[in-house]
UniProtKB/TrEMBL annotation:
Entry coiled-coil feature ranges: none
SMART domains assigned: CBS
Pfam families assigned: CBS (PF00571)
Origin species: Shewanella sedimentimangrovi
Gene3D superfamilies membership: CBS-domain
Protein name: CBS domain-containing protein
Length: 141
């Protein structure tokens, strides 16, 4: 099996010009835990913001500035300050064994799938593997 067999195509992305507040609201409204970050100028992949990283940033802001300042701090914190810088990414033909090893070794919850021009065409998450496991188990029984 390959990445293209389980990836979520055309995932919800966010611009690198957005704020942490924008990301927070987008994650809540769309029910996603990972947001690939794309350059506002050319749409190329810049990084990823995970729910875990966003929550850690929000908790840090509350601890540092107090709950009353959270909304203001989120609005003025650029995504670029909290996103994870590009590291590993995938192509559609990558074998799933490579992805599994990466998730295990790096305790990562997602990997973006990029085309040759570094544009996001999909995302693979740990949830995609849970869905795959369910499908395979159902085929057995």
């Amino acid at each position: 099996m390959q990445v293209k067999d389980i990836m979520t195509a055309n995932p919800i992305c966010i611009s690198d010009g957005a704020s942490l507040r924008d990301a927070h609201l987008l994650m809540q409204s769309r029910g996603v835990r990972h947001l690939p970050v794309i350059a506002e100028s050319d749409g190329r992949y810049r990084g990823v913001l995970t729910h875990k990283k966003m929550i850690a940033s929000v908790v840090s802001m509350i601890n540092r500035y107090g709950a009353g300042a959270l909304d203001r701090k989120e609005r003025f914190t650029p995504i670029a300050e909290v996103m994870e810088i590009p590291g590993q990414h995938l192509g559609t033909d990558e074998p799933l064994t490579v992805v599994v090893d990466y998730f295990i070794d790096n305790k990562s919850g997602c990997l973006p799938v990029l085309d040759a021009d570094m544009r996001v065409i999909g995302i693979v998450t740990s949830s995609d593997f849970v869905k795959l496991a369910k499908r395979l188990l159902q085929q057995q029984g």
